[in-house]
Protein: Beta-ketoacyl-[acyl-carrier-protein] synthase III
Organism: Phocicoccus pinnipedialis
Amino acid sequence: MSNVGILGIGSYVPNKVFTNEDFEKILDTSDEWITEMTGIKERRYAEDMDTSDMAIKAAEAAIKDSGLDKSEIDMVIVATTTADRHFPTVSNMVQHALGLNHVASMDQAAACTGFIYSMVTGMQFIKAGTYKHVLVIGADKLTKITDFEDRSTAILFGDGAAAVVLGPVSEEYGIKSFELGSNGEGGKWLYEEEDTKYIKMNGREVFKFAVRIMGQSSVNVTEKAGLSSHDIDMFIPHQANIRIMESARKRMGISVEKMSKTVDIYGNTSAASIPLSMAYEYDNNKIKNGDNIVLVGFGGGLTWGSICLTWGNNKEDTN
Ligand code: UT7
């Protein structure tokens, strides 16, 4: 059979912008420190919207972009660790809100790596011939679990959602390789505290892990696809911290123009981060048919994952 690729993509970020200057008013911090240490200038806050509200908007946009009818979606997967509640899941809510047929829907949690895990999961259902079109959404409202009195974490996070429709594409396009991994030993460095529900993090340890794994996993997945770094047209790392992203980019040997950067305007949006950046580049006409793209993420768990894909689809060939 053919490969599995992206037939449509869409995103949603809430209107409320929270800048570093806003943080200067509530915490002992400065725009200078945040910019230098993280590359973040501002982030979006969902306020009265919940994770499902953002997921639904992103999903609508992705389905529209795919040109498919809603009735052609066979499954919904939502990557999130900030679901409105444990159940019904966000994916159940998306299925209902969009009036999709009574299709399978599930949430999948792998913290900031969630979207990569969910893309690979969706891909497997299509490859197996079980389903044809899978809607994969990354959505997180991290402000729900952010301690706004902790300056070392509060400044990092933002809210958002983005989605893709996966489906069969001809052989030159689509997902060429992937890598997934986890190491629960590092769970103590990044976790949700049981009592407060706040994110707790050992920034130094997470930073060291992220620098090592992001570079290594990107190189691995590129080699697995039979490509070299010269063949990569766009590098889309998890938007956690510009210094981590830069080190991965250098390890890959890719020029700065080829790295997607939205960390400055959205901060770290967890499972939404990678698709949000991909949608941003797509909306700005920075991605064209035939481009080789590497997606790479890391997150709580600890988890990591990467995908190498060739952008494009022959919708007319596969209908
Ligand atoms: O999806 C989650 C993924 N998590 C990440 O990507 C986080 C990875 N880690 C990091 O990005 C970095 O660890 C941070 C940017 C969060 C912090 O940088 P760091 O170099 O690891 O700093 P640190 O935590 O060791 O703190 C250095 C100093 C401390 O002050 P002292 O003890 O040296 O006086 C902190 O209290 O920086 C201080 N500090 C701040 N100062 C001003 C920590 N946060 C702030 C702040 N503003 N917001």
